[in-house]
Amino acid sequence: MLRRDALKLAAIAALATTYASAYDEKLIVNKKKMEIKDPANMTELELKHSPEIKVGAADAQGFSLVEVNIGQKGVIHPSVDNHWIYEIELLADGKKVADVSLEPTTSRGFLAARVNTKDVKILSAISRCNLHGEYSASIKL
Ligand SMILES: [Fe+2]
Prior knowledge:
This protein is of the alpha+beta class. It has helices at 3-18, 44-49, and strands at residues 51-58, 63-70, 85-92, 95-101, 110-116, 122-129, 133-140. The protein has 2 helices and 7 strands; from the N terminus they run ααβββββββ. The protein binds fe (ii) ion (FE2).
């Protein structure tokens, strides 16, 4: 291996270390898929964990700003040491188009992506809480 290649490898390893998740994986204690019991009368816990999906107007190329907040009707999920949304996925017609990994206390449940929604029928989002499991929501376009 050339010295230059070795230096590149060392730099990449240092970056990987710097950008690894800060949280302890052992804090994720619930990975169960949760179901909303009565969508017309969601509990506060269900509202707090359900993604709220908003879609902006499409630009000339067909890309819309899609924003996902975790928490519906203003019931926002917390982000504290031992309780936070650690991951959000955005799907267009069941196919993943964006995801985000989040850290306790420093980032809160939110994802934004520009998505070509021209031929998309359903946008879905999945939120993962370290304590309360996986919740999802969908909207029709
Ligand atoms: Fe939670």
